[in-house]
Amino acid sequence: MATLYGVGVGPGDPLLLTLKACQLIANAPVVSYLANEQGQSQAKHIAREAFAQVSEEQQYIVIPMPMSTDRTLANAAYDKGAASIKTALDNGLDVVFLCEGDPLFFGSFSYLLQRLEAQHTVQVIPGVSSVHAAAAALQIPLTIQSESFAVISGRHSDAQIKNALLTHDSLVIMKAGIARSRILALLNETGRTEQANYLEYISRDNQYINKDVEQLDNIKGPYFSLFVITKKRDLRSVSD
Fold first, then answer.
1. For residues 207 and 212, what is the distance between their CA atoms, to the nearest angstrom?
2. What are the structural domain ranges in the chain?
3. What pairs with residue 31 in β-bridges?
4. Are strands 3-8 and 95-99 parallel, antiparallel or unpaired?
5. In Å, what is the CA distance from 116 to each residue of 35, 53, 229?
6. Model confidence over 199-238: pLDDT tens digits?
7. What kind of architecture, by CATH, is found in domain 130-234?
8. What is the CATH code for 3-125?
9. Which end of the chain is less packed: N or C, by CB atoms within 10 Å?
């Protein structure tokens, strides 16, 4: 029976792909990925090293995603993509779906999984998430000992983000670009501005890190951006 593989390709650095991800991509009879209206795919670009050894017979299922916040259009795209993947699976062909970051952490694979898991064998290959890549770039522990840690989205309401900032020792706010102005205001309101770091395009050639968010322009940022907020610690005085 053919298998659908949800493969995480990590946040951007092609060398952060796991060995298992590289092996599956190189040997898959069918590879699928999301693409924009110009046919460009971030996930495929990240996985470019793995494509160096593929055979000429490898097939591709490209799922064009509309540049719109209309979920009806997105759902239609996933329906169509899932139908194409199902056809390949029904024909006995394994399919590898490439997903930026980790497939099940704010991952596009989740939508295909829900559509196909009842009828087909599925395996998920985890990838390095942008959260962990951000912590590595900052060289800051996300959480230690009894500290609380949460991940939320910039799409949450002001009240939800404020509550998370007041409740948790460490916090990552994903999808922060469109909400950057709101988040900066909420950091100031909760007294956590000095504890915040802002990152864009983590591990990519155009990576940007700002450790003094008071100097950050109060405008919309890119989709691939996040805030990491942690309490100041002196780990030399901490014992287990």
1. 16
2. 3-125, 130-234
3. 60, 96
4. parallel
5. 20, 28, 37
6. 999 999 999 999 999 999 999 999 999 999 998 876 666 5
7. 2-Layer Sandwich (3.30)
8. 3.40.1010.10
9. C
